[in-house]
Amino acid sequence: MGETNQIPTKPPYAMIAILFIGAFVAILNETLLNVALPTIMNEFEVKPTAVQWLSTGYLLVNGILIPASAFLIQRFTNRSLFITAMGLFTVGTILAGLSPTFGVLVAARMIQAAGSAVMMPLLMNVMLVSFPVEKRGTAMGFFGLVMVVAPALGPTLSGWIVEHYNWRTLFYIVIPFAAFTLIYAVWKLKNITPQREIKLDVLSILLSSLGFGGLLYGFSFAGDNGWGDPTVYGTIIVGAIALIVLILRQLRLEEPLLKFQIFKYPMFALSQTISIVLAMALFSGMILLPIYVQTVRGFSPFEAGLLMLPGALVMGIMSPITGRLFDKYGPKTLAIIGLLITIVTSFLFSRLDMTISYTALVIIFAVRALGMSMVMMPIMTNGLNQLTQIDYPHGTAMNNTLQQVSGAIGSALLITIMNGRTESKAAEAIATIDPSTVQSPEEMAQMEQQILNEAMLEGINSSFLISTIIIVVALILAFFIRRVRSEQSNQENDKTEEDNIKASKKYVTE
């Protein structure tokens, strides 16, 4: 590699800004297509199981490449890695917008995913290298804009576009931002992350792909297909076995693909445990609420997406503020207050009925978003702060991977609870109907539809209640959080990489 690293004496704000834009566009794109799936299904005349691959394929590529990002970040410069990732994403976006067939569209989405998968871990790693521990909360607070706001904006934006324009517009509006980011990166991006001459363990890549890919695939389809589907439990079993073998292999390798030894740091291990629990529960709002609003209450997709917009704006406003509060007070108080707010609002969502107003739903969701914004980034940042610099790529890769897997598990669990409760409640209600009192088939169909809506409401409430209980577990764990500080004044940026690594080992837990 002919490129050199330029360790910054102060944070490279211009460079971080362009990484932010790239990551924001990539993450926004992940949820942008969900509302448009029925329209695409009709245009290309494909079945629901086929069109779902536009989301599932994207998810699987992310699940395969995110664990490998630790190797990529260590082996290649942040400049070459970001330009390659943004180039793939841009090519995939153009190809998706112009795709003449459904197969080309699926391939284009996977190319997009190959680019976007590396962006979040890369951005997080650059942030950790660029900012000292005492200023990292504020920096990672701005990073929260990307992590939480982009996915929340996706449904709102896509709902409006699909109602007024062709679904291809979803890709056309992304192309200029992606192209600008790519051009600017080629022109201005510099290298600040250290590289190491490490070898890629091909077997670890295969095991990681089978392990995380199998789990993501299985859990993604479990909610719809049921746990008895051979494809569901088969891929989950294969994934679990591959993951166990992967962990055992990583513990023996001198240069592991994904370093599981970082869980020896207590605050990192605790932060990941809380994040996993939260991701499992918090996806309930993103999945169950649109189902309630559209299916049970009959609102349009755009109205369902618009409902989440104030929550996204609250998160966007609060993320930098929360970061500053983290730098000043630490993560524990923020996490406890945020989780209490999230528990109360999640419980309110478990009491939904047919009369609650749209405005009330917007307010509860926005307050819930306020609670979430006080928890996720402070806990994650505190855990990553305890790692040594050489372990940053592994920490960011592990964090993003576990977020993906736990989100898929939580979604499958909550949808399964919802479906199970809906079916049992509907069967009980339909069994009580006296056919002699029904005057026509149309009246019977209307009664069954009403029963199904009420049963689904019961199922959604049950899932939100389980979600609330899961968040209570996160609250209990939050009482064990301790703030991680650095014993030094973080002037390691002027030292060599070796000195940097030695200095970073002086992180202690208060």
Task: Please give a structural write-up.
- By secondary structure, this protein is mainly alpha-helical.
- The chain folds into three domains: 1-198, Growth Hormone, Chain: A, CATH 1.20.1250.20; 201-256; 262-510, Growth Hormone, Chain: A (Up-down Bundle).
- It has helices at 13-32, 37-44, 48-51, 53-75, 78-98, 102-130, 133-164, 169-172, 174-188, 202-225, 230-252, 266-296, 301-329, 331-349, 358-373, 376-385, 392-431, 441-478, 497-504; strands at residues 484-485, 508-509.
- It has a two-stranded antiparallel sheet with strand order 1-2.
- The model is unreliable at 486-510 (pLDDT under 50).
- Residues 492-510 have a biased composition (Basic and acidic residues).
- One of its GO terms (cellular component) is plasma membrane.
List the helices and strands and how they pair.
Blueprint: H1 13-32, H2 37-44, H3 48-51, H4 53-75, H5 78-98, H6 102-130, H7 133-164, H8 169-172, H9 174-188, H10 202-225, H11 230-252, H12 266-296, H13 301-329, H14 331-349, H15 358-373, H16 376-385, H17 392-431, H18 441-478, E1 484-485, H19 497-504, E2 508-509
Antiparallel strand pairs: 1-2
Subcellular location: Cell membrane
Transmembrane segments: 12-33, 53-73, 80-98, 110-129, 141-161, 167-187, 199-219, 231-248, 269-293, 333-350, 356-380, 462-481
GO molecular function: transmembrane transporter activity
